Amino acid sequence: MSPTDWRFWSALFAAMIFLSYSAAADCDTPQDPGAAIIDCTQSINSGKWKGRYLAAYYSNRAAAYHEQGDLDHAIADLNEAIQPDPKLAMAFNNRGAAYNEQGDNDRAIADYNEAIRIDPKFAMAFSNRGNAYSDKGDNDRAIADYNQTIRLDPKSAMAFDNRGSAYHDKGDNDRAIADYNEAIRLDPKSAMAFDNRGSACHDKGDNDRAIADYNEAIRLDPKHAMAFLGRGIAFSYKGDNDRAIADFNEAIRLDPKSAMAFDNRGSAYHDKGDNDRAIADYNEAIRLDPERAKAFNHRGYAYSDKGDNDRAIADYNEAIRLNPNSSLVYFARGRSYLFAGSVEKALADVNQASAHAPENAYLALWVDIVSRRNNLPGRLAQTSSRIDMTVWPAPVIRLFMDQMTPAAVLAAADDPDATKKKGQVCEANFYSGELSLTKGLKDEATRLFRLAASDCPHSFNEWDAANAELKALGVVP
Q1: What are the transmembrane regions (predicted)?
Q2: Helix, strand, coil: what percent of the chain each, to 5?
Q3: Which of 121, 150, 225, 338 has the highest Cβ tally under 10 A?
Q4: pTM as predicted
């Protein structure tokens, strides 16, 4: 959820009220929320105030309740504020913010609409309405509102930050980073903007820049749990699972209810081969968020690695129920069916996975592999037109289409980037092993699977698949 602006509504009336009643002045100034509630209540109950003045006190007490996290009392006070002064744009804005925090985005948007109708130059209301649209997944309307916010208030770092997040959600990382850059220029102490830019850099595959941004976010705000979480994910992608786990530990310490942190720490333990600790973390992630499909999927992988395909499939079933459009979960379940010997079910699942992501070269490969296990012809000749054949794993695709040899694929896996080379060599060996297996060359397949099991990064699907294939061949990995 994007940060939503609340504001003590006192600027219009503070001077007049302060001049007349000094005892009420504390209600007009942001302070300790408990003290503000007492002062505002005294003013409300005094009977001295009517109309817009009474509305101001209700609105300010609502802001204090909001600071305490008491959204129900905040909304009740804002209802009271609106009754004597239905043209109080700030009260509609603040009530919208409370509804937004309660997850009622439709009522929030209705209130922001009214605030904007009353005051068409109310930049904060446009910004907050953009946040509500963003929370509903309507990033185009969110961006339109952030554009309007920036037009009205071109120095609003938060508006640039939020617009960047909307672009990020749309997958436009370059425009997102441009907006985060501007947010940071306007507010160099915004930990959130550095955190968000780090996330966009990570999504572009630049984990070093991501880590640098997360470092700065943490320096600015050592209690910023999301920055530790993001940095942990970046370390994980670099294969540094120990540093990743250290960051996830800190994220959990700062936010012990973060299902995402437990889920990601579980994945780091899984990548280290510690499936029992991984499963314990996935269990906690699911307890905290029973609708987190990723955690069920990840726990399924851990059970699969332990050879418990029945429990793995049960988890994949739940992940698919929660997210029926996830190609990754259909692929994972299909693979478990394959290793359990249910090749027809495996083919149905990998076909479904590929249908959700027809441009994914790896899914196309698995459709070919499982089709051959079902004594059906491969389909890469038909599906390769949807795949980018200028980048890896195009050589593997050509191998399965009899256009390259295993030796040529292994040579093509070479790369000056050692991490990239390691992954590509892993895949060259594994998929060459799969092709050998479909041709009945079990000894060669065993040799290649052993290489993959030995050398593949544990975070790669091919690593645990190689181990599963070796077990199916009756060979100790």
Answers
A1: none
A2: 75, 0, 25
A3: 338
A4: 0.84
